[in-house]
Specification:
Layout (H helix, E strand, L loop, with lengths): L10 H14 L3 H17 L3 E4 L6 E4 L5 H10 L4 H12 L3 H13 L1 H30 L1
Helix pairs in contact: 1-2, 3-5, 3-6, 4-5, 5-6
Length: about 140
């Protein structure tokens, strides 16, 4: 549950917050909450950044894929333990430390990453159904 909180912020920062909130269609409160949440997460996990895209804002590895993509590959990777981590790192062309970072981030924030994986899975199911319907139409 949200708890009322008061902060004194510099006028210039407040103006930028209000402008960004207006531009994005979000409230200042929701924007501050999102930025604070992301800032604390990226401070705790250097090497993780948040970026916008078709699936919304999501955690990613600096210079690499989204965390959810790495976690998805770890779930389906060959081997066990560190051998799996090394295999996925090789497949993705990433240092093992970056794959470990994604795994650690997931261990701390599983709901966030699982939600992204579910969005991707749902999108893939919709695309497969579309292709199947198109193929039935074209082959009947």
């Amino acid at each position: 549950m949200a708890r009322p909180t008061s902060f004194r912020l510099p006028e210039e920062l407040l103006e930028r917050l209000e402008d960004d909130a207006r531009t994005s269609g979000a409230s200042v409160t929701s924007l501050v909450a999102m930025l604070l949440d992301e800032g604390l997460k990226t401070r705790r996990y250097p090497g993780i950044v948040y970026r916008d895209g078709a699936m919304g804002r999501r955690a990613g590895i600096i210079g690499g894929p989204d965390v959810w993509e790495v976690v998805r590959d770890l779930r389906h990777g060959r081997g066990r333990g560190m051998a799996r981590l090394a295999a996925v790192a090789q497949e993705l062309g990433l240092p093992a430390a970056r794959v470990q970072l994604a795994a650690d981030f997931y261990a701390t924030f599983p709901d966030e990453i699982d939600a992204m994986i579910e969005i991707d899975d749902a999108t893939a199911r919709r695309v497969r159904a579309l292709v199947e319907r198109r193929e039935r139409l074209l082959t009947s």
